[in-house]
Amino acid sequence: MNVLIIDDDAVDRISTTRILQQSELPIGAIHQAGTGDEGIRMAVEKRYDMILLDYKLPPTNGIEVLRELRGSSDFSTAIVMLSHSNDDELALRCIEAGAQDFIMKSEVTALRLKRALLISSERHFLEEKVLEGHNELRRLAEQDSLTGLSNRYFFDESLKDAIPQAERSNKTLALIFIDLDNFKSINDTMGHLAGDNYLLAVAKRLEKSIRKGDRLSRLGGDEFAILANQIAEPYQIRLLVEKIFSNFSEPTFIEGQPVDISASIGVATYPECGTTAVELMKSADVAMYRAKENGRNQVQYYSRDFHEKIESRINLERDLKNAIQNNELVLYYQPQINTNDHSLAGVEALIRWNHPQLGLVPPDQFISIAEECDLINSIGRWVLDSACEQFSTWVRSYPDMDIVFSIAVNISAKQLRDKGLVEYLQQCIDNYNIPASRLEIELTESSLESSLVALDMLNALSASGIKLALDDFGTGYSSLSHLDDFPFDILKIDKKFIMSIEREEQAKLLKAVTNFAHSMDYETVAEGVETELQLEICKKLGINRLQGFYFSKPIPANEIEKAWF
């Protein structure tokens, strides 16, 4: 057993040494220190099994030495406090500060010292066990169980500590949020075990990317965060991000299959983007969201202008959830005209949101939000029901009309995953007594490839007698090879082929697209007709129906009645 005596009184040190040597304890080395500073240095440099510490150590005292020693995270030595004072309150203070025992110097005998040392050693052993348990619980509380990285709790605490440190050092602090782009598809197609292995691979590559002193955490799911300290120059952040993308450039292998790693990264810096933990995290999250919006697998740096846009989007999302219940959604209708006689061939139902504060909100500002928030099915069903109800009203109210027209409703690829869609549409047709052949369902060409899994749904819709129209035709050339696989009846030629025509020689692309459609025996609709020249060219090309501002913009149902019935 190696013992250190820290005492400013040389006589007391000699006396204590002699008593130790006379005891039956297995004493090895006995070292002495005459000051608190010397004792602290010796205690840290050389590990002792026991320290006998004098309370009075001018200019300080033993409790301060005790607290400094206990403040070291890896210090683990039993300490017995010695004093000439017989003060119970002092003894209690010493124990509370971390001493294992308190002995009056007048009571230091071989027997008393032996008992104190044995008791202190045992007490210290038990304290170490408790500390080990505490540290293990803390590790479990602060560590992500899958990757072994720090978890969200540790990250939050680290960020709170890092901000005042950055302020004191006058250095930039960077917060980097990393969100994996394709993680859900891996889970869905390969299973959760494959997803876990993918996260482990990502974690290892992120660990290779960070600098010494940076803190990497897994926040949960497929989200990671890096806290980059001591940023002296902005280029250091750029280099760090480039290293992350470089380490992600090669695919990882999951169950023998190569899987690409793609991530959207958002960066916010202290103090430019925020001076509190909440502000920094919000800014980094906004930047990351922007990276996803702009095409994924890229980095975006926070800007206040974009933050305001995101805040507006969040508010729209919140309000949209109550729009149906509050009767804020309305349908406008745009006529489709027979090319030959300019009679009404049909109407397209187009949704609008009559927001109580913002007024009439167009669909391009909220449909994408509805899709991301899983509101698109409920909104889509509302559109189908409302359009069918209005169409039924027109048919009943104007039984003597010479014209026979159809009604078209747009649905998204996500709605085709609604397993109850066919049944719901059939209910609408039955409830409102609508001929199925006069109901057209429009699906955009850009979503055609992602809807390959919904081919059975499209076939079921077609089998029910409903007509299917491919909207924005000509914009997604990759889908042409699949076009014959789908039961479409109508091709709606995208407006970009019409609206750009100012002279007849500019109609070559429109002619090519139209010839292709006619060669496949599709009925054709031209969108975006705005001028007399565009109208005449569409007639020459034999396009069946015309739609655009030349005839009418989208208008409410009552205005359709006034203009066309």
Automatic annotation (TrEMBL):
EAL domain span: 313-565
Stored SUPFAM superfamilies: CheY-like, EAL domain-like, Nucleotide cyclase
Residues annotated as domain Response regulatory: 2-120
ATP-binding is among the record's keywords: no
Cofactor: Mg(2+)
Residues bearing the modification 4-aspartylphosphate: D54
Organism this protein belongs to: Marinobacterium stanieri
Pfam family, one: Response_reg
NCBIfam families assigned to the protein according to its UniProt record, in alphabetical order: GGDEF
Protein name: Response regulator receiver modulated diguanylate cyclase/phosphodiesterase
Domain of life of the organism encoding this protein: Bacteria
Cross-referenced Gene3D superfamilies: 3.30.70.270, 3.40.50.2300, EAL domain
